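WARN no homologs supplied; continuing
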Amino acid sequence: MPARSPFLAILILLAAGPAAGQDPPAPDAPKPPEPVFVRLSVYPTASLSRYDYNNDVDLDELRVYVELRRVSQEGAVIPDALVRAAGGTADFVADHYEKRTVLERGRRPAEIEIEIGIPGRSAIREKLSLPDWLSLTEPRPAIVDPAGDLTVGWRFDRFAAPVDVRAYDFKTGKEFFARDNLAGTSVVIPSSRLPGATTVRVYIIASWLYKRFLGGPDYARGSEVNVIPWSQVFVRTK
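OK structure emitted
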């Protein structure tokens, strides 16, 4: 019997298919999308006034800042994402996204939703808790006499915490009062420090921010959420 042609043997092997009991090789699984470094900073903002003593009185806002980078905190900025925060679309500014939302009077939400859409991957969604709001109680927007002391008072909606207090001449930018980690609910700025015939900005911010880290396959190591409540007021001095 003549020997089989080597080409015929190859054809027989191909026709026979995989050996009995063996599964065909699985196709390559699609690679998961690369992780993204995300830093979310939310500022619940209570303004007794803005820019001037009688401008935007008793205005509550949510100020949201979103930083997106590829793979790690040192990665390239992602400028073509669609970021939605508190029901609106954030703007890309320099190297991050910003969204300011003015709230209805008396409406201070306990949480907000963030949605991040990056081309080529599924949207990332987070529901963020807002643990607290911080508000100045005094001084109210007014024209004040710099010959008297100025009392600065504040309150938290839910929890007491230390605050940092700052006051400066809004026209010159010169700070004339600064205190950190103040307990209690008030502090007095002595009249000897108050500048006259100008606009004074007073603001307070929580000394301790609320932080949590974001985990899961979507997030690069170190991704985080920061919530920092603060409040401001402008007064004029005679």
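DSSP finds one helix and 18 strands in the chain.
OK
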